[in-house]
């Protein structure tokens, strides 16, 4: 069992109710595909806590990479306002996003 804490980029307050809902949906999808069980998921405005249980063959590094690489793109896709909030900090107050 592991307690993981993931801060948002630049500690921006991006975890609203919609993002929280999407995050929990994605975590349920991860549970179905991998040998992980999310016992608790808690969000604050600028970070998220996970209490994760997994098989011993998964290292902590593998779990962190898996959770981050699967949740972030889905949040950006389902909640495009999050990506905009994060990139405004990087590029000043520009209204455009960087090329992908």
From TrEMBL:
Q: Which InterPro entries does the record match to this protein?
A: Transposase_17, Transposase_17_sf
Q: Which domain of life is it from?
A: Bacteria
GO biological process entries: DNA transposition
Residues in domain Transposase IS200-like? 1-93
SUPFAM superfamilies under this entry? Transposase IS200-like (SSF143422)
GO MF annotation, one:
transposase activity
Q: What is this protein called?
A: Putative transposase
